[in-house]
Amino acid sequence: MKRRLIASVLAASLAATLAGCAAPADPATDGELRVVTSTDVYGDLASTIAGPEAIVTSIIDDPSADPHGFEANPRVQLELARADLVIANGGGYDDFVDEMLAASGNTTAVVIHAVDVTRIDASANEHVWYDYTSMQDLVHEIAVALDGISSDVGRTARAADLSAGIGDLLTRLDGIGLDHVGAGVIVTEPVPLYLVQNAALTNLTPDAFTEAIEEDTDVPPALLQEVLNLIPEASVVIVNDQTGGPQTDAVIDIAGDSGVPWFGVSETLPEGETYLSWQTGILDLLDGALNR
After folding, report:
1. How many domains does the structure of the chain reveal?
2. Which residue has the higher pLDDT, 191 or 23?
């Protein structure tokens, strides 16, 4: 069972909290366009498409926190109770959204799961925001959903501009792949693997290692040593900035000792970044590492 974003409160207790508060306004009649997303990655996409009149709330938006340690609270359920549109990753990554939405009593919200929009099999790697084609498809799905909720003459243009920006990321990634096809990569978690695969790079990391790190379980010493021995053969090492531990530290140390460039990626937006600027920065890091 992979590590997931979890809610540490029971739906029953949250329902009791809601019962003790003023009843939330019916989202269909309160005159506001409210969007709730599981993380600020999807929050930024929704905000860009919906425009300044929409109220967009991202449940997880702390760039310094491990998203897998998130603890939901009654405030989250209150936001979901008022939402017109809910956007989650799906695929088991953020099940708490569906659970808390159901407990909130909001039966009118439109719900989008990113993994259901993709054209890829995300069962082995649910981090689909690193697959740019999937994000273009999601942009279209969000725009269609919003059009079904409210009218906005500028929405089509905003969605088209965002999709074009993601298209630029795709073009850039294709260019990196052409320049470095087959280059070896070590990752500590599956988070960036769509980037690696779509750039035609070679993932050298044993699946058992990335699965153990992702599930926060001990890595057998022999497996860790196998990965450390592979690092000098790699062109770049990529780690998850928002998680860590002795095994990740060991990977970083060996990369440094071996002269192999490494950098970190994250699961939520760094402070002050948009989806496009964030991913552009990651491609800059990848291109720079491979060109060393």
Report:
1. 2
2. 191
